[in-house]
Amino acid sequence: MLTDVAFAVAAGAFLGIIGPNGSGKTTLLKVMNGLLRPQAGAVRLNGRPLAGMRRREVARVMAVVPQDAALLFTFTVEEMVLMGRSPHLGRFGFEGMGDFRIARAAMDRTGVLALAHRPYDTLSGGEKQRVLIARALAQEPRILLLDEPTAYLDIRHQAGIFDLMKDLNRRQGLTVVAVTHDINLAALYSDEVLLLADGRVFGAGPPEAVVTAENIRGAYGIGVLVDSHPATGLPRVTPAGYAGGGGPDPAP
Fold first, then answer.
1. Digit-coded pLDDT (tens) for 194-210
2. Residue 75's closest CA among 118, 46, 35, 37?
3. Beta partners for residue 204, in sequence order
4. How far is C-alpha 77 from the geometric centre of its chain's CA atoms?
């Protein structure tokens, strides 16, 4: 449950959402996308109440990358990615050559073009995640919401996905909101960080202001060392036990 959560995401921003398990991160994304309606307050998209917008209209602006996709039928990777074109299809819903070109470009950018004819349900967890990102990119959104987009990926693909998101953010002005358990990834790539704890905003602002030892201890109940990364100057988190601090502090 979320309580008294209020914030704004500027057009073209890259927002990282962090917080411990059960803090409300996924719920917040669902509220932002209109899948859940708040009991009080309102969500606005480009100044308009989200509740008053049709789902197709929202989908032309905002795409979501979930943690996983449960399917009743078997689809190929290409068919999965082409689903991202649905909000843009005409009355009869048939894809044209332009839709196939956009889908293939999205698959190429996420490294799954070679898997185009593979059944989605035969892929590894990491491959599935990259297909879901390709589907969202094929939607050609102005806002991209990602729920743990690198959860099943190795370190190379983690960096690759965040590099891709940052490149789209900088070059095309894509607004990115990414939920991640990796505090260091959030600090490295985000312009702003939103820290949730117990369904409330525990901290919000630039990574340097939010990713502090005090905030991480308060939200996660663990002692950490926060120093500056030598290459970027951005905050870097190390659990206290690995930093010579004698192990994590007990939760308060």
1. 999 999 999 999 999 99
2. 118
3. 194
4. 21
